[in-house]
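re: that chain from earlier
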Amino acid sequence: DIASVIDRLLASDLASSPRKEKCPGEAGPDDRPNGCISPDDRNAENAARCASNRDTRGNALSETIMRGGGRDKSGAMSPSFTNDSLSNADSDPTGAAALEALKSGKCIIGSAVHDHVRGGLAPDAADLVRQVDSLLLATTSKERSLVQEAAAAASARTIDGYVTQDPSLAGTFYRADGLSCIREMLDSQSERLVAPCFDLLLTLVEADSGLLEQVCSLGLVPAAMRFALQTFSMDLRRRAAQLARLLVRGSTYSVTLFVACQGIPFVMALMEGDNDHLELSFAAISVFWTIIRRATPVGTEAAGSTWPNQYMRLMAHHDLPLKLSDVLTRALADPEQLEDAATFLEAAINLYAALCQGDKVVKARCSRPETASAVLAATIRLPTNMQRTILMAFVSLTSEESVISGLEEAHGVAYAAAQLAREDAPDMQVAGVRALEHMCLLSHSRLDKAARAGAVPWLCDIATKQRDPAPLNLLSSMVHASDQTRDIMWDAGATNVIIDLLGERSCVSTSLEALVHWLACDTNRLEPTLVGRARAL
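^ sequence. v structure.
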């Protein structure tokens, strides 16, 4: 069923543990211009260098600063931490105490620079701090200087190399306030400066996952994720996709910060473009799945947690269902553009199916005619397992009465009727009957549409084989619909089917009611049949 399909996807690599991954087709770290080696390739010499670079103060940032000290295990702020913080703030309304603390140097940012001045850092760490100074020159210059930009880009690559070989240097970079330099340089109009800074940012958050929260709190999410927009180069958009994946995989709290920093609209921008940009859509779908997976279930809900429907509401608000229908259409039109088209299609379809489980607001977005019609039209080109996922999602949508008119406009009645012909998949036949019940039982016009779409012969067949009241309910309702529908039923032999079902205790009342009404509407044609079947009656 749909739950098991979604659970399987959530347990897959799309929601795996945090790690730096390239988008499909993206160059790995070894392909970068600076030639940095990957952490997995570090040898004993690098390990020794790592040990020497850890000064007596420790390069790793404290748990309190880097991992949200005042938060409990779930990532929520503890009441005591919040109350204490408010009390401290209220006790210093003019900021005088805070100013004295700053004057006395009681701050972490900049401590690496002080260590450098005192000679307290190992050679690589000291050179890293000097490289940060080069970044500062580019960010503080009053006028744009191509020379300074080139020097800053070179410094970013050098720092990238240091951190790649020794991840503990990420802490040194942070204490030298290097993140602020990256934040400022990401506003540059020069791609030759932005690209190496972006690469450095990716290396840093991979080296120390604690930096993820600092990246969000310093405003780097909107600064970096703006490069997801279609106006930027493919290389920068890939980097933005990679950063988004790292941020949402970091922790529940980093996901919360990412969403709070308007990360979802930027990820949505990755899904814009032509067929050449489908790899970015794949990355975006991975991010959305991870965000949903990170949401806390209701049963273990903690203070400050978010139920998945709230995230889905936000995604739907930014038209994710419509974007999914668009990428499905593009992917099916040119599947060769994807390295693993089957995985991409399954992930996209399952995400649409997950949204269909949301509340009526999310369902309404999924049921808009332009969205639902594109998704339903795509089913004929999909394998059976994906067709089944879409059908179950469709049944879920039909359970919400307020969206049925949109599904009708998207040719949903004909789609549901077509599922009755799936003799190879009885469960899909049953789902088709359920969808028609939800959509048509209370609407004569929709019953007429179902009859004209060929539902009657299959309803008769299913009712005869399964002896189930559900298809009989539809047939009985169709008797009330119109003369045209009754003509279709007569030609399909529905009269005899209804009479035969009088033998089923659960069907007696419905069958008799249908025959009484049909006899009143078409006495001349029906009466001879009833007389001939008197024994059955």
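The two ends are 40 Å apart (CA to CA).
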